[in-house]
């Protein structure tokens, strides 16, 4: 009895033919496959001999598929696609979890720590949605979120404190040196206050300077805390931000604290999850990693 696979050409010959059919050039096909040009040409000749058909017209400066060659190339390409799909189906795919965070939290806290997360949990494909819009766990397919404020955040939601919002005033090191030499009043008159959407400068100034009115009229307003922080690093004024978002920049010398005083807002950043989870184990792993990262700044 004949083996039904006997008429099947060699896989290397089929790969060489398929690559050459796309490039219409043996040299380029060889480069893709990591073999010599001569090896590709030999494989194609062997394939043509085994099936008894000419697949390419050899012209002086180009290859041209024959009609049989075009038909065969399309069928071979589909066969390779099926092999790729079958192989991928056997491989375990990373589990995708979706986390909703604010843009500033993503830029200033989460992204600098992501390398640690991927090293600890390579099996989890983390999808990060950075938006100020309050995402809905069910309709937006959110697995967990980091939200600012005070719990409770809604019916059927669990909240665990990641860190308290402790505000500090920061500026470039040059601005900090200027303050030490000129005094607070002249300093505030010279440099703008960089505001964000939370507008915490009035209570902070009252705490620092024991007065309710800001000194001077120079103000720049941003809708994102991260933009105010970036402007402060560029020497454009003084920003007010949670220490958790600027601590690394201070340690690396990109920012300096303008005053030693801190303002506790009574709010914090919380890891929020629905009580009914789609992927309990992986969500617990992400939640645990987040809380471990925020342990140094945990809420009281």
From TrEMBL:
The keyword Transmembrane helix does not apply. Residues 9-66 form the HTH lysR-type domain. The keyword Aminoacyl-tRNA synthetase does not apply. Keywords: DNA-binding, Transcription, Transcription regulation. It comes from Paraburkholderia xenovorans (strain LB400). Pfam families: HTH_1, LysR_substrate. GO terms for molecular function: DNA-binding transcription factor activity; sequence-specific DNA binding. The lineage of its organism: Bacteria, Pseudomonadati, Pseudomonadota, Betaproteobacteria, Burkholderiales. Belongs to the LysR transcriptional regulatory family. One of its GO terms (biological process) is DNA-templated transcription. This is Transcriptional regulator, LysR family.
């Amino acid at each position: 009895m004949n083996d039904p696979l006997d008429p099947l050409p060699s896989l290397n010959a089929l790969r060489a033919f398929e690559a050459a059919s796309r490039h219409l050039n043996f040299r380029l096909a060889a480069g893709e496959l990591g073999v010599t040009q001569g090896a590709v040409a030999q494989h194609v000749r062997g394939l043509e001999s085994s099936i008894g058909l000419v697949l390419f017209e050899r012209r002086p400066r180009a290859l041209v598929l024959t009609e049989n060659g075009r038909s065969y190339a399309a069928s071979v390409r589909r066969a390779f696609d099926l092999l790729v799909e079958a192989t991928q189906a056997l491989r375990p795919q990373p589990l995708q979890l979706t986390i909703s965070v604010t843009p500033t939290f993503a830029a200033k806290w989460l992204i600098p720590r992501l390398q640690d997360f991927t090293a600890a949990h390579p099996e989890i494909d983390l999808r990060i949605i950075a938006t100020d819009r309050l995402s809905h766990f069910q309709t937006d397919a959110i697995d967990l979120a980091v939200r600012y404020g005070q719990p409770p955040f809604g019916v059927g939601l669990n909240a665990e404190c990641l860190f308290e919002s402790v505000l500090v005033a920061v500026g470039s090191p040059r601005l900090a040196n200027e303050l030490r030499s000129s005094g607070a009043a002249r300093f505030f008159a010279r440099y703008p206050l960089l505001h964000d959407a939370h507008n915490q400068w009035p209570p902070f100034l009252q705490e620092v300077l024991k007065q309710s009115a800001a000194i001077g009229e120079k103000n720049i307003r941003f809708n994102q805390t991260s933009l105010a922080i970036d402007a402060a690093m560029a020497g454009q004024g003084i920003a007010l931000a949670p220490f958790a978002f600027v601590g690394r920049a201070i340690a690396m010398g990109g920012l300096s604290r303008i005053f030693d005083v801190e303002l506790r807002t009574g709010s914090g950043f919380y890891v929020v999850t629905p009580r009914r989870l789609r992927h309990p184990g992986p969500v617990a792993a992400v939640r645990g990693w987040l809380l471990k990262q925020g342990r140094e700044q945990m809420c009281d």
